[in-house]
């Protein structure tokens, strides 16, 4: 039992480290999306997704499939991120375009690369979740630990706010990740989700 607890603790440390990477990537993604929205505001470009962005999203969906990450999970996550970033952009004044430095196309290319990295980190995180599910099954532990999740959620929200992320963005992210992770753990443990 002690070996299993050590293994579970080690895997949770991996989750903590990957979550740090996720928060940093998310903070940079949020910053880039805000810059894109600022440019669109300043140049009176519609906030709706462009054809180029739709092509980027198709590329990202294909990349996600290749990595084994659930495309609908990623799509829901990115849509929520965009909604929150849009609400923040509308509420705050746009920056001076001369201080933004990069064109819309350059920012969009950076965003796609960042999102591909986000896919890789999420994929790795969910691989660790599967391992946790196997360990919990071996130790006869339930997949859900509400107290641990609430403590983790508050910690991630605090960390995210320290990076300039809105509370609701971090909370939504980790609630969606948690639901997906529970489903994966339950699959590993042979339980119905």
Sum this structure up briefly.
The protein is mainly alpha-helical and 193 residues long. It has a single domain (2-189), classed as Chorismate Mutase Domain, subunit A (Up-down Bundle), CATH 1.20.59. It is built from seven helices and no strands.
What would your notes on this structure say?
The chain is mostly helical. It has a single domain (2-189), classed as Chorismate Mutase Domain, subunit A, CATH 1.20.59. The protein has 7 helices and no strands. Helix 1 (2-42) crosses helix 3 (71-91), helix 1 (2-42) packs antiparallel against helix 5 and helix 3 packs antiparallel against helix 7 (167-189).
Shape descriptor: elongated
Largest sheet: none
**Between the first and last Cα atoms, what is the distance in angstroms?**
26 Å
Give the overall average pLDDT. 87
CATH class equals: Mainly Alpha
Helix/sheet category = mainly alpha
What is the tally of helical segments? 7
Percentage beta strand: under 5%
CATH architecture tag: Up-down Bundle
CATH topology, by name, is Chorismate Mutase Domain, subunit A
The number of E-state strands comes to 0
Count of the separate structural domains: 1
Residues in helix, %: over 70%
Q: What oligomeric state is this?
A: single chain
Poorly predicted spans: none
Could you tell me the radius of gyration in angstroms? 18 Å
**What is the H-and-E element order?**
HHHHHHH
């Amino acid at each position: 039992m002690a070996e299993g607890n050590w293994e579970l603790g080690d895997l949770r440390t991996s989750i903590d480290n990957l979550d740090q990477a996720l928060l940093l990537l998310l903070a940079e993604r949020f910053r880039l999306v805000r810059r894109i929205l600022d440019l669109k505001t300043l140049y009176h470009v519609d906030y709706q997704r462009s054809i180029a962005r739709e092509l980027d999203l198709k590329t990202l969906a294909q990349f996600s499939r290749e990595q084994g990450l659930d495309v609908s999970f990623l799509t829901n996550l990115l849509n929520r991120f965009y909604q929150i970033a849009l609400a923040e952009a509308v509420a705050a004044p746009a920056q001076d375009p001369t201080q933004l430095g990069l064109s819309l196309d350059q920012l969009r290319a950076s965003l796609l690369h960042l999102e591909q990295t986000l896919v890789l980190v999420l994929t790795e995180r969910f691989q660790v979740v599967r391992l946790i599910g196997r360990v919990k099954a071996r130790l006869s532990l339930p997949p859900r630990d509400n107290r641990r999740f609430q403590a983790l959620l508050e910690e991630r929200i605090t960390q995210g706010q320290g990076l300039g992320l809105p509370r609701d963005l971090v909370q939504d992210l980790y609630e969606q990740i948690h639901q997906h992770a529970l489903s994966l753990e339950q699959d590993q443990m042979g339980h119905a989700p």
